[in-house]
């Protein structure tokens, strides 16, 4: 949960070496078998003295130790696979006389007969049932992941924030850009197509917890841990479309040529070769999984080449809303854009006039801090969620009567509640459930989605009514309004090996978020990049979701 004025992600990475040009040199390291021992009295440094290398002995010893760890891991896996193979072969020898084999055995051993005895058939059936039961979950997860990757593809990464990203939104006017709100006290606007940062808002003195755009004008509304909400204007010009990246060998070489640090370049090349060799070792890599290192742990102030350090910065708000006595966690525009609503940790939501910044109403009733607020796209309705396990519906359609309805059904903090185009509200909670409610019948939900992790700020697509769930466990799942799961977005995998140097370069093989996913936002007007996610790995991601294919497979 956002904190006031603070930075919530990990500490900055260690100081980097000064960038300077050095002559390229080759690296030659002799590998020894992990089962062999060095002759007594001979140190590792003595084994390397006769080799031509400018690396210090201590550095070369560290590299050899790391490679030794990798080799021992693969050797253990190889031995384990051999033992499993022998067990399967022994079972096949017992069953081969009756025409039965266990999956994974050698079909060439034993002559297969047409019939089997009753007792042997029972044993074979029991083995097969146990085998299928133990692997069904794994196989089904493989199939689901493969299908999700085919229907949900990562298109663009938006990297430039120095801390976690709490919220993101897409403008409703031309030019269409992406906005992100971060704990680094800033909000950034991005080109969706190129991933380039176009503008930075730095008017807040605390964490920026949400961002929403005016329905018809180029204005943004941000809520912050400095106990204020700001309304500010922006003007951006979209850059020219970039040509597709060069994925040929020449383009790969150009990537290394552009690197400044020769040590990093040489080590990166070495590690890519190591991963390639390990990946192609027969019979081993199927048992491994990796997790990329957190490359987002940059030094304070360090950004990408197209990051916020080189773009226009807005520091003064058009209007400042100051009535709250605690962190302002969220804010949104009412239909028409003449009023805004804010939600705060002071357990109240405030309604303001945009033109005068005047406080119109204070909405009280929640017993604990508010976590989110959302407005209806076509009606004067507001929904606020809270840590008191409830969310409330506020009706401003009749100026003389401001009714409120309380929705109870969750057992933990309601992290968000959003409207759909119809008469539904979808709520997500830390109790690991998502509930779909009918505004005409508020006693019980019409659908409940149960997950394995806490749910953060959800979003619902306007046209197809698909719910995108961001989770604490780095997952992003898609469901329909009836609770049927449609897909899971790809993410980086978990690493079981020792923390070795391979994790430095393995990030090129994985995709998705590496930390908690905080928010999702749909953009169905864009046919290519139609879903955005953000999280505490300091990046936002644009996805292409093949919605017709998802609905067809349902």
UniProtKB/TrEMBL annotation:
Keyword Cytoplasm annotated: yes
Subcellular localization, as worded in the UniProt entry:
Cytoplasm; Nucleus
Q: What Gene3D superfamilies would the database entry show?
A: YVTN repeat-like/Quinoprotein amine dehydrogenase
Q: Where is the composition biased (Low complexity)?
A: 1-15
Major subcellular site = cytoplasm
Q: Where is this region: Disordered?
A: 1-50, 95-125, 290-311
Which keywords does the record carry? Cytoplasm, Nucleus, Repeat, WD repeat
Q: Which PROSITE patterns match?
A: WD_REPEATS_1 (PS00678), WD_REPEATS_2 (PS50082), WD_REPEATS_REGION (PS50294)
Q: Give the domain of life.
A: Eukaryota
- Which residues form the WD repeats? 158-200, 201-232, 321-362, 363-404, 407-447
- Please provide, in alphabetical order, the Gene Ontology terms of the cellular component aspect for this entry: cytoplasm; nucleus
User: Pfam families from the xrefs?
Assistant: WD40
Output compositional bias ranges, type Basic residues.
16-25
Skewed-composition ranges (Acidic residues): 297-307
What InterPro entries does its record include? WD40/YVTN_repeat-like_dom_sf, WD40_PAC1, WD40_repeat_CS, WD40_repeat_dom_sf, WD40_rpt
This protein's name: WD repeat-containing protein 37
What organism is the protein native to?
Sphaeramia orbicularis
Its gene is LOC115411237
């Amino acid at each position: 949960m956002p904190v006031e004025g603070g930075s919530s992600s990990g500490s900055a990475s260690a100081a980097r070496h000064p960038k300077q040009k050095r002559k390229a040199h080759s690296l030659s390291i002799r590998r020894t078998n992990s089962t062999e021992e060095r002759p007594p009295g001979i140190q590792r440094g003595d084994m390397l003295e006769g080799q031509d290398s400018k690396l210090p002995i201590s550095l070369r010893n560290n590299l050899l130790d790391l490679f030794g760890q990798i080799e021992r891991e693969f050797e253990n896996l190889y031995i384990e696979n051999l033992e499993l193979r022998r067990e399967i072969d022994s079972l096949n020898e017992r069953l081969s006389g009756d025409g039965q084999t266990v999956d994974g055995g050698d079909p060439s051993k034993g002559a297969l007969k047409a019939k089997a005895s009753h007792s042997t058939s029972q044993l074979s059936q029991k083995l097969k049932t146990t085998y299928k039961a133990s692997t069904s979950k794994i196989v089904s997860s493989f199939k689901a992941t493969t299908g999700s990757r085919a229907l949900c593809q990562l298109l663009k990464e938006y990297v430039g924030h120095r801390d976690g990203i709490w919220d993101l939104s897409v403008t409703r006017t031309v030019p269409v850009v992406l906005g992100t709100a971060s704990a680094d006290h800033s909000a950034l606007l991005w080109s969706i197509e190129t991933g380039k940062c176009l503008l930075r808002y730095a008017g807040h003195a605390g964490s920026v917890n949400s961002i929403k755009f005016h329905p018809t004008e180029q204005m943004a509304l941000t809520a912050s841990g400095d106990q204020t909400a700001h309304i500010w204007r922006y003007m951006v010009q979209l850059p020219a479309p970039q040509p597709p990246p060069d994925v040929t060998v020449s383009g790969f070489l150009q990537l290394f040529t552009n690197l400044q640090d020769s040590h990093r370049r040489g080590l990166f090349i070495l590690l890519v070769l190591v991963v390639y060799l390990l990946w192609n070792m027969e019979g081993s890599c199927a048992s491994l999984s990796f997790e990329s290192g957190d490359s987002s742990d940059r030094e304070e102030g360090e950004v990408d080449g197209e990051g916020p350090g080189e773009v226009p910065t807005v520091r003064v708000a058009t209007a400042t809303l100051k009535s709250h006595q605690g962190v302002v966690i969220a804010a949104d525009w009412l239909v028409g854009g003449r009023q805004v609503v804010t939600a705060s940790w002071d357990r109240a939501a405030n309604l303001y006039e945009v033109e005068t910044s005047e406080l119109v109403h204070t909405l009280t009733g929640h017993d604990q801090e508010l976590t989110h607020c959302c407005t209806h796209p076509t009606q004067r309705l507001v929904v606020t969620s809270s840590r008191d396990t409830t969310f409330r519906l506020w009706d401003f359609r009749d100026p003389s009567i401001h009714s409120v309805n309380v929705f109870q059904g969750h057992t933990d903090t309601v992290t968000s509640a959003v409207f759909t185009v119809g008469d539904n509200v979808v709520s997500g909670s830390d109790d690991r459930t998502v509930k779909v409610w009918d505004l005409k019948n508020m006693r019980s939900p019409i659908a409940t989605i149960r997950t394995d992790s806490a749910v953060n700020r959800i979003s619902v697509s306007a046209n197809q009514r698909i719910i995108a769930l961001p989770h604490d466990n780095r997952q992003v799942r898609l469901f329909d309004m009836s609770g049927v799961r449609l897909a899971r977005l790809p993410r980086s995998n978990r690493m079981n090996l020792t923390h070795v140097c391979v994790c430095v370069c393995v990030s090129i093989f994985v995709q998705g978020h590496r930390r908690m996913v905080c928010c999702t936002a749909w953009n169905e007007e864009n046919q290519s990049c139609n879903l955005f996610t953000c999280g505490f790995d300091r990046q936002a991601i644009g996805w292409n979701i093949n919605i017709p294919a998802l609905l067809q497979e349902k």
